[in-house]
Amino acid sequence: MVKTSSSKSKSEDAPVPPANAASAKRRVLIVDDHPIFRDGISQLINQEPDLIVCGGVCSTPHALAAVEELNPHVLIVDISIHGANGIELMKCVRAQHPKLLALILSSHDENIYAERALRAGARGYVMKSAPPEKVIEAIRRVLDGRLYVSEVLGSRLLRSSLEGRGSPRSDSPIGNLSDREIEVFRAFGEGRTTREIADALHLSAKTVETHRARIKEKLNIQTAPDLIRRAVEWVNHEANL
Questions:
Q1: I want to staple 148 with a disulfide (CB 3.0 to 4.6 A). Which of 54, 68, 73, 124 is the partner?
Q2: Which domain does 117 fall in, by range?
Q3: Are 139 and 116 in contact (CB under 8 A)?
């Protein structure tokens, strides 16, 4: 059984809404590895008359199982989750459930991740620093079949379209890394060893080393210690956004 968010639990004495009222609400599945955040966002969503949180999980495998069991209308996903990251989860969802809607809600820099998330299958990207009403607006817009991005990112996407470019380029060189390279780069910044990264991403150590070499080339980094220092600085910068 999938463990649902604790914010959904009710005492035995609490009134139970009519079945038809509950079924009329659109179901939201939260995928985030911080229980306190899952509880907080669940409370926000459950206050809305047309929305209800049907579950909360912390990893890609649990999310895919919960989708099968709970049949949500929309996923709300963080980039950093246990196992494969939120971008990889989007790819899995698109392959297995192409009609399922998803919104990324994350503290990670939208300049690096938002366009990647949209390519992977997400229908919107919201920073966790956004006001609560913006989060609810984003959920409803995605459920209505529309995209939701910030005004800044929307302007970049439009400008890129008008200029005939396939996708907007980030101002940061890190934006030139592939999805997997960013995942490896972040892992180095979090202090993981090559073997730990290989085990977490289900790769060989040699493959991780190949990614590391490509990262160094793309970021014009000469030595392994310099790469680690750059990765740590980037992870710390993102943590302060």
A1: 124
A2: 6-160
A3: no
Domain harbouring 190, CATH code: 1.10.10.10
CATH number of the domain encompassing residue 47: 3.40.50.2300
Q: Per-residue pLDDT tens for 19-60?
A: 455 568 999 999 999 999 999 999 999 999 999 999 999 999
Does 9 have pLDDT greater than 70? no
Residue range 87-114, pLDDT digits in tens: 999 999 999 999 999 999 998 888 888 8
Q: Is residue 234 part of a domain?
A: yes
Rounded CA Rg of the chain: 19
Is 16 contained in some domain? yes
Task: Specify if 74 maps to a domain.
Answer: yes
CB 77 within 8 A of CB 33: no
Could you tell me if residue 232 is inside a domain? yes
